[in-house]
Amino acid sequence: MEQLESAFNEVLKTKEGKSILLELDAESYLKIIIKTIQKLQKKGLSGVYISIQRPFKNISSLLKKQGIDLNKLIFIDIASAVSKETQENNKGCVHISSKLDVDDLVRTIYTSLDQMKGKKFILIDSLTTFALHKPISETLRFSEFLMRQVKERKDLVLILNVAKDFSQKKFIQDVVAHADKTIAVKA
Amino acid sequence: MIDTKKLAKEFNNLGEGAIVLIETAASKILEVHLAAVKWLSDKKYTQIILSTSRPCKNLLNLYQKNNIDTNKIVMVCSVCQEKEKKEQKNSKVIHLQSSSSLTEIAISLSKCMESMKDKKFVFIDSINTLLIHNEPNTLAKFIHSILTKMRTNNVSGLLISLEAETDKEVRAEIAQLCDKIMCDKIVKV
Question: Which residues of chain B neighbour A90 with C-beta distances below 8 Å?
């Protein structure tokens, strides 16, 4: 976790938009995501949480229990959309269509970011879970588009998460090649 | 032998709505299954058990021999392939065509979850048998969808898998979706 702390310090010092790929142990996946958000909020960042793994209702209550300020987060609930679950209206959550159109998703992310002030982050909870629902080509288009966009901004950090066991997968290696930093995080 | 007290202790520490993956040796999978069902039954959970490895009749007999109350058990069985949907003893059994009918399995599990009001627990036994009948990516997508449904409805869950036998990537995909992973080391004597 110290590695993560110093990486955030380094990235924020540059005052440039950066993308960071985190390789996480499957056993402590959520725990590390929680720590990541806690660290980013402590540094004064607000963020957009792209929730592919868990529905909003579940992830928001887990994060709240861990003391995370939900007023500084906007969730995009992809898990409910792809599972065709009824989506509850909540001001902290944006719902999307079950088609999971990449262009729509990118637009939704940027509209959500515009509602926030100061330094911001985008956190994608799992690229491989995203790839279960979209072809690899679309998953790569999504991640590469975001990584390109982030480079053009000064106030934005993009965090892409992936389970450690996928790190040698070809499409993840493509993401590694485009990311500014890759960190293997242990709990 | 597994340590049932240790297993019960681990279960007692789980929060409401938690989803657990248990990885165990093939020789202990039945023992773990019975210990888990016994604990859930003692805690008065309504259990929705997806059985893809053993026929429901065999499991229900084993439950009775192990003094497990079957009144609150709904068995979704993809092994027998019996056409008639019928009640067996004190529990309800839903027969499915096969373990490769993931849509049919998903619909049955969803209906069970929606129709029951008590505190519920979905038990999937096992990931490995489902992997014999389905493509890894299709199965991972199915598990993601079921777990999302469970989380939306605040239903707890248990998935059983064989230790070191599951495809590395499928294992990682499923494990990262769970709240806790228990391995043999935790539960063996």
Answer: none
pLDDT in tens, A23-34: 999 999 999 999
Helical residues (DSSP H) of A115-169, grouped into ranges: 127-133, 136-151
What's B126-147 look like in SS3? CHHHHHHHCCHHHHHHHHHHHH
Domain ranges of chain B: 4-82+90-186
pTM passes above 0.90: yes
Nearest chain B residue to A161, by CA:
B176
Q: State the ipTM, two decimals.
A: 0.93
The CATH classification number of B4-82+90-186 equals 3.40.50.300
For A93-127, the pLDDT digits (tens) are 999 999 999 999 999 999 999 999 999 999 999 99
CA distance B161 to chain A (A): 15
Burial class (CB in 10 A: 0-12, 13-18, 19+), B118: exposed
Contact B177 A85 (CB under 8 A): no
Homologous superfamily of A2-185: P-loop containing nucleotide triphosphate hydrolases (3.40.50.300)
pLDDT over 80 (residue B55) = yes
